[in-house]
Amino acid sequence: MSWGDPCRTGTAFDFRTDAITTPSIRQLAAITRATLNDDVFGEDASTTLLEQHVATICGCDAAAFVMSGTMANQLSLAALTSMSRSRPCAVLADSSAHVVNFEAGGLSNLSGAAVQPVQPSNGLYLRAEDIEKHAKLGDNMPWEVCPTAVVSLENTAHGNLIPLRELRGIRDWTAQAGILVHIDGARVWDAVAAGGGSLRDIAACSDAMTLSFAKGIGAPIGAAVVGSSEVIRRVKRLRQSIGGGVRKAGVLAAAAMEAVLENFGPGDVDVCRVIQGGHSAAAEVSNMWTARGGKLLRPTETNMVWLDLAAAGVAAETVSDMASRRGVLLAAPRVVLHHQICADALVSLGQVFDDILAGGVAAVDAADLGVRSKGCVQAM
Question: How far is the C-alpha of 259 from the C-alpha of 218, rounded, in Å?
Fold first, then answer.
């Protein structure tokens, strides 16, 4: 049996993403105890329990359980844009955001919204000044300009925290401007574990926030949207319209609930310190790279390390191939840590770093490097 065995599943040697964490035996046991009623009718107790719990720990009126983080984000954005008095309208987001680059054009398909991509002026995350500069506002705008209805933030943003003071500043400004706020909280567990505020603190800065149960805390599948009763009512109707209403959802909700309790805790702050294991491993990997003379593309704050491969003179594909030969999986230039990475995998990764920085890699075309290793956008 592979449940609870990251070595057997390969997760212990996989640095590509924290979405591959192996579900535990406790989650399997929770599935066997799950209720098997119909959630489309709102009658499944396990699903209702999860939704009520997540809403409570985020300080929100309600929550909706959905199948994936992408579904959660797109339903949130569709719900919020449907509340805009200006249609068509636009969603302003970090140009490197997941909702812009890796959700198959869901904004145009489900929300009918234009995207206003903005590069953060600090190179890490959007701030209030960026939003104020680029948002399109006012009844007196030229007719050809699409008004901004929603600001979408990602916390963490590629492993970097958006400070709570910045989130509150954005919330204050958007509230005055009549703009709604969505937070992609796929890794909000990491933000909380790293001191970026409680779940309640962060959710209070949004009109809709998503959480992933499959990233970091290790459930087999699932995500949630939290917000006001009106937002969640719209989310659930939209969920049904795209086939996201699931009849026997309890088996999935029960595993997600157990994952939250065993890897985060029962409240709005991290008490289990499991997630922090991935952060400690990321700090170790960051030090392994820089101690060998490597440079980083972004500061390491949570569970992601971004390698500057152009400075090292090697292409991303070459590094990933080298890692595979050493027995680990890597989607360079991003290295993602999680609590199930094993010590042997870190040793193997150190050997890959030796291969790269000790001059053991064949020269590659400089122009090709610029395209393949300088970006900070990776799928998942």
Answer: 6
Q: How far apart are CA 175 and CA 378, in angstroms?
A: 31
Q: Report whether 56 contacts 78 (CB < 8 A).
A: no
Q: Do 223 and 68 contact (CB within 8 A), yes or no?
A: yes
Fold of the domain spanning 34-263: Aspartate Aminotransferase; domain 2 (3.40.640)
Residue whose entry in the numeric block shows the structure tokens 């003379």: 293
Question: Is-contact 74 115, C-beta < 8 A?
Answer: no
The 8-class DSSP code of residue 108 comes to: I
Rounded Cα distance, 54 and 78, in Å? 21
Burial of 107-140, coded b for 16+ CB within 10 Å and e otherwise, reads beebbebbbbebebeeebbbbbebbeeebbeeee
Residue pair 108/194 in contact (Cβ under 8 Å)? The answer is: no
The helix (run of H) or strand (run of E) holding residue 212 is: strand 208-212
The overall longest dimension of the chain from CA atoms, in Å, is: 64
List helix spans (H) across the chain: 6-9, 25-32, 45-57, 69-82, 98-101, 106, 128-134, 164-177, 188-193, 199-203, 229-241, 250-263, 275-291, 309-312, 316-325, 343-357, 366-372
DSSP state, 20?
G
Q: Which of 273, 263, 156, 276 is nearest to 218 (CA)?
A: 263
Tokens of 205: 């800065």
State in Å, rounded, how far the first CA of the chain is from the last one. 27
* Average pLDDT per consecutive 10 residues, the chain (380 residues; last block may be shorter): 93 97 97 97 97 98 98 98 91 97 94 96 98 89 91 98 98 97 98 98 98 94 98 98 95 98 98 97 98 98 98 97 97 97 98 87 38 39
Roughly what angle, to the nearest 10 degrees, separates helices 250-263 and 25-32? 140
CATH: 3.30.420.40, 3.90.1150.10, 3.30.365.10, 2.60.40.420. Which one for 6-14+274-372?
A: 3.90.1150.10
Is the entire prediction scored with pTM above 0.85? yes
Strands of 148-154's sheet, edge to edge? 62-66, 223-227, 208-212, 180-185, 148-154, 90-94, 114-118
